[in-house]
User: What shape does this take?
Amino acid sequence: MSMRSIAYATAACLFVVSLATKSDQLIRGRELHDNGCVGCHGSDMYLGEQRGHNPYYTVRLEVKRWSEYIGLEWDDAAIDAVTAYLETTYYRCGEARC
Ligand code: HEC
Assistant: This one.
């Protein structure tokens, strides 16, 4: 096997691993969200309305703010997971911060 094909094989493996990690994160984010965040509003809240009023708005900031408000004591990984879930499912941000 040439160095080049080893490099391609390695890159392909890393890609698959990062996809798996990504979807684990989304599953965890969904679970955390559905257990902690459905008391007051449904997904119709996730339209970015707040964004127009607040130049510092990010989905992550909202997740952090609300999880603190209800006293969930989420760590960074949990906040990241729920943010990733909301961004992917509702805000459809792609790679851009929103
Ligand atoms: C106590 C009621 C309540 C709970 C519980 C709650 N929210 Fe909210 N949320 C609101 C209200 C009211 C707004 C809109 C007004 C505002 O942002 O101040 C809002 C707005 C948001 C927004 C901004 C929507 C947008 O894009 O304009 C996000 C994101 C959000 N909530 C996520 C969450 C998450 C994640 C949780 C769980 C950690 C959660 N909320 C739990 C009441 C709640």
